[in-house]
Every structure is written in C-alpha cells, then in structure tokens.
Amino acid sequence: MIAADRPITLAVVTGAHGVTGEVRLKPFTEDTAQFKAYGVFEANGSSLTLKKLRPDTKGWVVRFLEITDRNQAEALRGTALTVPRKALPDLPADEYYHVDLIDLPCLDETGNKIGISVAVENYGAGDILEIEKADQKRFMVPIAQAVTFQDDHLVIAADFIE
Hints:
There is one protein chain. By secondary structure, this protein is mainly beta. The protein contains three helices and twelve strands; from the N terminus they run ββαβββαβββββαββ. It has two domains: 7-87, RimM (Elongation Factor Tu (Ef-tu), domain 3); 98-156, SH3 type barrels (Roll), CATH 2.30.30. The protein has helices spanning 32-38, 70-75, 143-146, and strands at 7-17, 22-27, 40-43, 46-56, 59-64, 80-84, 105-107, 113-122, 127-133, 138-142, 147-149, 154-156. Strands 3-4-5-2-1-6 form a six-stranded antiparallel sheet. Strands 10-9-8-7-12-11 form a six-stranded mixed sheet. The two termini are 25 Å apart. 22% of the residues are buried.
C-alpha cells in the first residue's frame, strides 16, 4: 500500500558553494529535468524553491530563492530535500519505487507472516530487501530472486528465509 504523503528524499545538501548562497547537492536521481520540475522541496520543516541548477563534478550546484548568503547555505549541510510520494511520476505495473516496499508485511509462500520490510539496499549486485522479524532480528534477501510483489504485501521465497 502506497503512502502518498510519505516524504521521498531526492537529494541531500553537502555544503555551501561560493559566497552567494549556492549549495552543493548529492542527488539520488540522475534526471535533472524531473528534479527541476518539482520546483519546491521540503527541507527540515520549511520549503525551498529551486531557482537554478547546474551539474558539477561532485553532484549538482543549486540556488534556492530563500537562501541568499553562505551562512544560510552552510546551515543546510546534511539537510534532505524531499517531495511527497504522490509527486513522483507513475510507473508501469512491473516497476516500483523502493519507498513503496518499506513497511510492507512479508509472508512466506504459504501465507505465514515472516516480518516487515524495513529497507532496500543496493551494494552493486542488485536490489536487496531487508526484513525485520518479530524478534527484531533482521535478514536480507535479493529482490530479483526472492520477492514476489502483491498489492499490500511481499511474498518471500522459502529458500531465502532465515
């Protein structure tokens, strides 16, 4: 079940750039056009309006209307820039956003509850789902080989259950 208002982090401010209020971003998307299209981002309880964006060797450099000097820019270091889940483009039926998998119940192939999905990671060999069991122990399964998506839960293949 998709939480339409769940905040989705699209970038994190890594520091100030120059003295006029520009900031460096570590983006979690490669699509600058889509990022620009959002226009306004939630940042620690306030809104930031994108004015300008340019690629840089260390990510992106951006200017926000609300940030006018280096001190304000430095104060944003470590700040996540988010948009609500409902702002993301719709995907084809066979695709998903990682955030849509978080907090879903995980069942085995016979319908017994295993736990809850708590994270999606990718260490270079494909997406991995982290599952927390009732005893709070966690284990990971490769999504491509072990997970079947249902509307409101995930089914985990028996060979991958710990």
